[in-house]
Amino acid sequence: MTLWLTDSLRMRAGALAPAAERFLHGWLGDDACAFRGGARGLILLCDHMEHWLGLDAVDAEAERGFVEGAGALLGLLLIDHVGQTAHAAHVARGSVHRLQLGTHGFFDPFAAIDLALDADSVRGELARQVALAEAEAASRGPLSRVVCGLLLALAHKRPDLTLAEHFDLTLWLHSGDGDEPIELDLTRAVESTREQSLDAVHAVIDKLLTMLPGGGDVVLDFVEARTRLVPRLARQESLRELGTGSGALFGKPLTEELVVALLVEYEGRARYVKGRELEAWGVRPERALELALENLSLRSERTRIACTSTDHGPLWVARTGDGRDSARVLLHSLYDALTDKLGARVVVSIPHRDTFFACAGEDEALVQELARRTAHDAARAPHRLSNRLFALRAGGALADLT
User: What is the pLDDT of residue 206?
Assistant: First the structure.
């Protein structure tokens, strides 16, 4: 459709290419063939975003479509730009799409479009996002510099741990004598050092090293472990992939897709509990889950549940930001709080690990809006759980509605 979109760029862009082509055609029509990318292409994208913001009536579905199309085009522009000096390509894990820039840089073009549309200056924010992408490609970005520093430190101080996989803010490490990959979430490390110097990055990396298994951790007995146990919702197949045989992780079925796993939480790190650990502790699974829920309840005093207005009524969205919100649907106190606000019939969804949605179940149009938003968030989340809707019962029981 455009000479700018070469076979090489199309190959590196993957699923972004057809989405960007549709966006360009819907925006420019027959003139899309004249689009040439580069700095001029970025300016034209800013023009179109500003025009979009000036429209009088835009529904939620149209807005999501615009962000997806503009994000795909921004992704192509960045791949073309960064690819002139460093590796740049579209990558995906499940339904989550990112740009990989340089050796360890990752960038979310859709989030960049969201931020620019919400900013006081579309052009200023988009320029800032492009600079951020360039920094990630050069190993100077908030994520890439943490990953590069951590891997260098591992090579010198923990050669028994090697990189198995890296996607966005998550690393998976192989242990020389372990049968379970170590999953390391770098979200806190990246956010806490985003505006800080390299000294702060090195300090965070040193702290991460001390928290990795085998790096000086004392093997917990149950007296200490019981205060660190918390529940986590996970997809059944994902939990199976993380541990098999003697390393199988504990998980209690919750729905057709989901299980309730157990974590032992440390500051900045957490690990799953294996089934054999419960046996070694002499603790029944029911008792371990009960303790985990008690600990989660103690960690939920500052839970943030915000009300979001829609054309069909209010939706409630958990936005605490501590990675535990999805598991909070299991709390007795949450059921009581939601029924007070929404009535006896509460419908919830758990699109990803870091949130849940809720609405009154009596309004079918509102429930359908919840379904649309759930599908959208689940498709874009790095820790996807489910796009299904559930009726919430007392005691954290979920009944599948879809």
Answer: 87
